[in-house]
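Note to self: keep these together.
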Amino acid sequence: ESLPCDQEGALRSSGINAEYGDPMLVQKLWRELLSQELSGGAHLPMVSLMNNLRSKIEVLGRTYQSSEKFFPLQFLVQQLEVIACKSGWGEGWVVETLLAVPVSYPALHATYS
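Structure:
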């Protein structure tokens, strides 16, 4: 199940583009996207919810990860670690997800250091 078009569209348009990269707006949009993905999949088995969220992060990450402005790695790691911890998804879920984007090992190491 994917996110509503309006949220994904907001991420792809006015909220996230080269001229309007307000960090607070970007973080707000990411928070909303993560929240909607989780609430939209609440009826799914845990494995499906994990896979759906991972897929969404991968797709958006491939689009935006080249810019810290639009793919705020430190912020996303913090948000995803909280989600994974509360959901009991295991310690490696966030790292595996971000490596699949792909985020580099050095970037992840720096984020966790």
